[in-house]
Structures are given as structure tokens and as C-alpha cells.
Amino acid sequence: MHKSTIYQDKLLNTTIILSVLSILMIGFSIYLTQHYFDLRFPTGLESKSLCNVNQFFNCDKTTLSTFGNIAGVPIALFGALIGFFILGGLLIKNEDYERSIYFTIVVNFIGCVLLFSYSLFILKGLCPFCTLYYIVSGLTLLFFYRKSKSIKPAAGYLAAFALIVLVVSGLTKMNVDSKAKAQNDIAGDTLKQFYSLANLGSPKITSEFKIAAVPNAPIQMVIFSDFECPACKALSELMPQIAARYVGKIDIQYFYYPLDNSCNPNMKNPLHQYACKAAYAASCMPPQNFATTHDEIFQNQDKFESGFLDQYIKSNKLEACVADPKTKEKVVALIAAADPFNIRSTPSYLINGVKIEGALPPAQLFAIMDELLRKSGR
Q1: Which of 183, 207, 228 is where one domain is finished?
Q2: pTM of the predicted model, to two decimals?
Q3: Which terminus of the chain is less hemmed in, N or C, by CB atoms within 10 Å?
């Protein structure tokens, strides 16, 4: 076979592989961008999260983190743009463009390494789709390393890339701001959805663990939650605001629902391996101080793997209580109270008997609660 034919075949194979890798980069990035919008701007009262494998491999944890976005623009968007830039280079076949893309891929991979390190060592977990993106980015860099002769970028192409990133980021920022504004204007739609759902009533037992204790309050909130769940943490951070806004007018019961088969018979596998232990620790603390216990455990959620729970149990002298079989029985009884409500994910909660899944934004929760107060005359 002629050398030029062999070279052309290798070039074709490399082009095909890079095309596949760039398409994968785009696909993963689009999914992650959509997940960001679904999580930050939910359009319904049911959870849509699909990529939370367990506490370690968890998309919500990274999406809700400090570096999940830049000024409201999801960082996954930049990954999609890089994928499109690579595809463009395969079509244009220009040496200056190729060198500029090579440089961009190197910068992208450095960012991947930094984000991977942040997730692994700071957040103590990884987003599955982010991790796939990191791997594909590494493979793409490897192919460019073998294919390209120089990494020196062309200023004109870098300026064009930067302009495209700025324009797309600006448009996305406008979309984010528009959605944030719309979120504050959807009280009517939220209430329409709320009243379209069935009233499932209340659990057969009352939880002694309360964030706000007003038994005959016009707003009755029952939360089924997991101390190791990132979305539950997001909801927990709203509790002080809700309790203060509706002081004397809301009763908030907390039911343990650990996604851990060591205490939850509805779980086949331990999605959250520390969740049951956290529930035992919380149930051993004085119930009248549960709001404080609730906040403290959630605030230290990212330290579970580094021994926070063991230290918490030890410092509060809860060892005997946590080891007592009666403590597990108490937690299991609260888990069983969720059975009639078909709990599929956490957080799930009842507001005056209507089940909602996921951490709704404050504006939507307040719209529901304000309407319930108005109807009660209080």
C-alpha cells in the first residue's frame, strides 16, 4: 500500500475518532447544562434528577457547588462550546485553527483537572457526567498531542473563540435572569399545579422531631428527608427562613428517610452509606432541640466521610444510644410512616397533605404557603 494512502487512512481514522469525542463532549455538556436549569429552575412539583448514583457519584452536589456556575452561567456550557470548536476545526482544516484549538483543549484539560480535584477533595464526590467529560477531554488532548505539531495559537482565532464564548454566555445569562424573574411571577401556575394534586392526608404517626412546633397551625409541612442527600441540604437551608416567615403559623415535622438499606427496608442498596447513622445520631439528641440538630448535621454533610458523625456522636456522648436497637426501631418506624405516600426520592414533603418532590425555590414555596394562609384567614 502506498505511503500516502496509509497516511490518508490514519488521518481519516483520527478525524472520525475526534468527531466522536467532540460529539460526546457536546452531549455530556448539554445534559449537564439542562440538569443545571432543571435543578435551579424546576418547572413542576416532581423531581427530575436522573444522575445521582450515590453520595459519591452525585450530580446535584457539583451542580449546587460554588463552581457549578460563573455569574449564573453553568460551566457545562463552556464544555459544549469547546466540543463545537473541535468539530469546526475538523471541517475547516486550517493549521492556524488547529493550533488554536490545541491550545484551547490544553486550557480546557487544565480546568478539568482543577474541577476534578475540587470535586474529589473538597466536595468529596464526583458528578458521573462531569467525570465522563473529563475522560473524553483527556482522550481528545492525547489525540491532538499526537496529531498537531504546534500548540502556539493564532491570535485571530483565539479572539473569535473568546467572542463566541462571550456572546453565548451573555445570551445564557439573559436567559438565567429571565428565568429567575419568571420564577417570582409564577405563583398562579404553582398554585394551579398544587391544587391539581391529590391530598394524601397526614402520616398515621406524629414525629417528635420538629423544626417548628405549632400543632394546629394552618400550614402543616411533613418532610421525608435524608441527611446525606444534597438536595435535602438545599431544602434544609430554607427552613430557618420558612420558620421565621410563618412563625406561629406553620408546623414542620421531620421524618427520617435515609436512602440506606441498613435501616430502610425499601432500599436494595446503600445509596447513602452514612444516612442511617446520621438519623440515629439526630434521634438521640433532645427532640426539643431538633431544629438546631437538623441544621448542624446538614451544615457538616460534606464532612461525613472524614468522620464528622463519629466525632458528633462522641462529643455529645451518644454512643450507647446510637448502639441501642430501640434507636433503630424508632428510625424505622418513621421510615415506615412514609409508605402510604410512595416516596421515591428525597426530599419529598407534604404541604397540607399534598406531596411535592425536590427542593422548590423559595418563591414557589412561599406562593403555596401564602395562599394557604389567605384561605385560612390567618
Answers
A1: 183
A2: 0.64
A3: N
* Geometric angle at alpha carbon 225, from 220 and 230, rounded to 5°: 125
The answer to whether 265 and 329 are in contact (CB under 8 A) is no
Enumerate residues 6+ apart whose C-beta is below 8 A from 96.
154, 156, 157
* Structural domain boundaries enclosing 10: 3-183
CA dist 207 and 347 (Å) reads 16
SS3 state at 215: coil
Q: DSSP states of 121-177 as a string?
A: IIIS-B-HHHHHHHHHHHHHHHHHHHH-S-----HHHHHHHHHHHHHHHHHHHHHHH
C-alpha 350: how far from its chain's center?
21
C-alpha cell at 46: 416532581
Write the single-letter amino acid at 288: Q
CATH number at residue 122: 1.20.1440.130
